[in-house]
Amino acid sequence: MILIEAHPIQINNDRLNTEYLVLKNTGLEEINLKEFTLSDAQNHEYTFPSITMQSGAILTIYTGEGVTSNTEYYLGLDKPIWNNSGDTLTIENNKGEVVLQKAFRGNEEF
Question: Does domain 2-109 correspond to CATH entry 2.60.40.1260?
Answer without folding.
Answer: yes
